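Deliverable D5.2: sample structural annotation.
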Amino acid sequence: GRPGARQTAATQTMQWEIHEHEQPAQLRDTEELRQWTTLINLNLPKMGEVSARLHFSSGGLSLELDAGNAATRAALSSAAAQLVASMAENGIPIVNMRVAQHEPAQ
């Protein structure tokens, strides 16, 4: 680069957890009763901190999106209907969706 010019790179961090819910022994081999929860935490340069908790069950997907930035929450809320329709078209019904204010870690 040029002398005196400062180059910065935008960084994004992500944390992802996946949990399978314990089922009673007699139900463990029943695929339709299996439940999974995944939590993704992102820190995006233009949107700030965004968390997504997805709970998969035989009934469909429950989705909770949390964001600290009001503009990000508005953008997520305005895209919700499109996301629900797109997921349904691909065989994943969203049975519950919520966009909320991100609670800062204490």
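Annotation notes: The two ends are 41 Å apart (CA to CA). Strands lie at 13-20, 36-44, 48-57, 60-67, 94-101.
The annotation will be released with the project's public dataset once the embargo ends.
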